[in-house]
Amino acid sequence: MTLIAPTLQAFFTDRLAQQRQASPRTIAAYRDTLRLLLGFVLRQTGKLPSVLDWDDLDATVISAFLHHLEHERGNSIRTRNVRLTAIRSLFSYAALRHPEHAALIARVLAIPPKRFDKRIVTFLTAPEIDALLAAPDQARWEGRRDRALMLLAVQTGLRVSELTGLNCAEVTLGAGANVRCEGKGRKQRAVPLTGPVEAVLRVWLKERAGRPTDPLFPTRTGRRLSRDAVALRVSTHAGTAAQRCPSLQGKRVHPHVLRHSCAMTLLQAGVDTSVIALWLGHAGVRSTDAYVHADITIKEKALALTTPATARRGRYRPPDKVLAFLESL
User: Fold this and answer.
1) What are the tens digits of pLDDT across the range 231-246?
2) Which of the following is catalytic: 25, 180, 184, 254?
3) Does 281 lie in the same domain as 138?
């Protein structure tokens, strides 16, 4: 019998921290996955993590854990696959240290990721963006902070982790105004700021009055905002904005929707997809294809190029209300 605990500790201190030099976000994601897994096993078997051996984490247990994530915790298939990636990374490391468990480890590594439907990305139109940015109460400190945060997110397309990780010193104002951040894969990038966004950030930085290493968007107590806090603020303001902008009703607005909205604004302005990929910090241009699929105007322009010269321009409009109703079914 071989205990898991020493290998688990070495996985974080040796493999992730020393050999791979994984980012703090990657380490935190792997930590959360294994914490959930060990908690699940504790509830199922009553065994403490410190006394578990590899036979307690066979393919059957791992599959049951993945099923638990989907059907009891309500996680998406994408999240389920991310958790599986963390588990596979641990077992790949364990295969080198415990060849006596090679068969058990191989069965766990053979668990495949689950396929999922790729939905069209959700984004906000210009009127919806204006309504959302007008929602925070500018008479309150939190409202001014939230408006600056959302305005920066819509214009730069920063991920929520990049927004919460920003420090005051990472915003450059004046000539060549930009914001610098570190994204996925430790890739650093600088995104230019428009005049209106620069003006809002200039006022906010003066009111914020923070040191260079202080978070740009803090809580009232000066701590860094969490991802959940940003998501809650965005959804709250979206609910307020929906009262004045009916098209927001029924849309699930979260921080990543602001990133999608930035990409769609650039795409509809005619910016090349390779530039958009660099702007957003994508690993490759293919990641930007989702926005091309979501933009119906680009497809309509392509359709117009193939329309016979004798055809009348414009969309088809049913000539009668009854026909219009039947067409909508």
Assistant:
1) 999 999 999 999 999 9
2) 184
3) yes
